[in-house]
Amino acid sequence: MKSKIVSVLLLLCLCLLLVLPSCSSFALYEKFYYDLFDTITVIRGYAKSSSDFEESCNTIYNELQTCHKLFDAYNEYEGINNIFSVNKNAGVSPLTVDGRIIELLEFSKQMYEKTDGALNVAMGAVLELWRDCREKNENKLPYEDELKEAAEHCDINGLVVDKESSSVYLEDRNMSLDMGAIAKGYACDRVTALLPSTKLTAALVNLGGNVMTYGEKPDESGWNIGVNSPLGEGNLFEVECSDLCVITSGDYQRYFVVDGKRYHHIIDPETLYPGSLFCQVTVICENGAMGDALSTALFLTELEKGMEIADLSGAAVVWVATDGTVYKNQRAEELIFAGDEI
Ligand code: AMP
Ligand code: MG
Fold it and tell me: pTM for the whole thing?
């Protein structure tokens, strides 16, 4: 009997010896993509082997690429009805679309209400005028009367989303959608949802400033995310995250110059011009689509009202005003700064 117990214990020890090294055998891998959302994508993840990492990256990439195509307002792709197709069909007839488009459009309408209209995905007509000038880069601004005319076609109530038939209709022929303020954050959420089925135990995906983090590293720490200072070299702050998104909107990300003055890409629906209150807003929260929507909307919202919206949403937010002053709400204080000053 005694020898039986000894051999069972020995067997248990052997099993433990076999299992323990494999617990720490996860290595960190990294991969870059250059063809998604008009930006650079980085995937970092812990996996047991490079082939496990590659396989997981393929799964993530496929989802990101599908989102990229679905929410593209400027290109069409064979075999799919995307935002470009919806815009082309404005004033003509409802179009059947993928459930992801329905989901994000419904959420965008909610965020329009929550942000008092600062985030308006139906503002494509105005945004296109700014985009044209930025891309041509001919030292020219959109004409005032053109902007005002385009603003007549930005009423989000003209965006009709029918979940039952999975269709979308723009009632106004001159109206168009632009999902640039929210699509990358949503894509992060899609990745979050599929990560448990991949072979990565912890991962970070950075979609051009929209960062999602998943899980804890083998040493049980979170991912350290640095947010660049818009005021000079180095980081404004660093934050350790797991299962959180860190999303930044900045006036330095996309812009053009007219007569020596910079005009960036975040357009205030009230003035029809680039927002002038802040140069950077960073949002940290669990939901990527919400973080992305907020980063754009709070960029255009007076601080006091923005703080209210941030608190109601449970998001941590750090604002850098155009005069360089840094503001943060309570959750940001707790999550990021806990003791240090910036
Ligand atoms: P983000 O970098 O997330 O702040 O998004 C900026 C992008 O969102 C721009 O390039 C436009 O495509 C779009 N955009 C700009 N201003 C607005 C706005 N007020 N509401 C909705 N989308 C906007
Ligand atoms: Mg955004």
Answer: 0.91
